Amino acid sequence: MSGIRTYVQTDMRVAPTQDNHLVRLRDMIEYVNALISEAVRVVATFPLALDDNALPIIVDGVEIAEGDRILVAGQLDRTTNGIYIFHSEGMVRDNNFNSTINITPGMIVPVLEGDTYGGTRWRTVLGGVPFVIGVVNIDFQQEIVDFSKVVEMTFDISGDENSMEYDITHGLRTKHVTHELFNEDGETVVGGFRRLNANIVRVTFGVPLGVGNDLTLIIKAEVDPT
């Protein structure tokens, strides 16, 4: 079996890291042209006090640890937006995002975690040419999901006469999902849906789902757009 090579499908929102990773063409082009940054753990869409130790330890529902990379996108002084490394005594710009040379207009920053923004991608927008770090504004625009191409996943929900809530883990790393709920006859069933995070959806019913009342949940999301 030594002549068989195993390939791994990467997360569509994170740049490839190994030579056997399979990626979509758009990601490959962006990566080769240095348009995809190394992923950050979370994105802060609100102002942070970058130079003191009174920093929040929770960003988008995630407890921040020493050395975490954070996309800072909500500063009142937009020249201070960027990618930072978290330290207990303050935050410093990441080495890959701290000079005019390595900050590119249109650069994409993938976000790995977060209750709201986990699995999203943010595109760098520079406020002027020539770009000078610390002088020209840096903004980040969240990419909007395109549902023209989606993946569909099916889950079974089985009643037990006690449960009114069912947490479904789809693992798609995005909150941009749609839901369809059917009974065994293919009829649409009404339920409440809440996206707990980028990987889990909670389905809630008004009364406990009875034994034998089995339902099918279909979740759709874009993971491989053109």
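The above is record 1. Record 2 follows with the same two-line structure.
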Amino acid sequence: MESRLIQPDQAKLTRLTSQHANSKRAGHPVRWTAKAHGFSLVELMVVIAIALVVFAIALPKMTTSLTLTKWRGEMSDLSGVFQKCRSQAIKNNATQQLDFTTNNAQVVTYIDVPGSTDSSLAGKTQIWMFSQFSKVDAPPLGNTNPAPLTQGTMWGGSSTNPPVTTEQHICFNSRGIPCTCPGAATFPCPGITNGYAFYFTQGEQWAAVGVSPAGRIKTYFWYGSAWAN
């Protein structure tokens, strides 16, 4: 393959050589420069204005998404301590009790034994909810926003009977079945219930933890018109 030597434009080479020589004679260093290009102030201000508008639109949605994620996380943790209490009752072959209390304006859920007079939280399995989290009574019957949960909504079927919602604690017997709390862990449960629902709020948001008569634990969230998991 033939190779060719490409000669530079003679006039251009002569001009550059002359400039180089003149610069050396004048005592100035030779600098090869290129014309710089950039954004004008108006262009920068337009870009910043667009970014601020996009940020203002996205910020509320981001804040809401983060709040809902945290809300669902707290309910998942709460459901976990219910499950822990049930598992502990089966493992220990003895009734276990799950209690709710408020400490420094925070809802605390902890596992105890029925009939215990020790109100201390030390050494007990517990979970602390964030300060905006509140345990509340069930919505009144006939309420529509939110509507109270029913056995049919929670566990299937057509029953409109509500689960037990008036308790401040829940017990699981040695078979993991929710029951009326006895006077001591060694005592049998005095009765089996039709399941439980415990309600919680954060601002205008509602959620609940349900325990079926068979001991199945699920969380429920109110989505403005209906409950869903």
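Residues 72-228 form a domain with the minor pseudopilin epsh fold fold (CATH 3.55.40.10).
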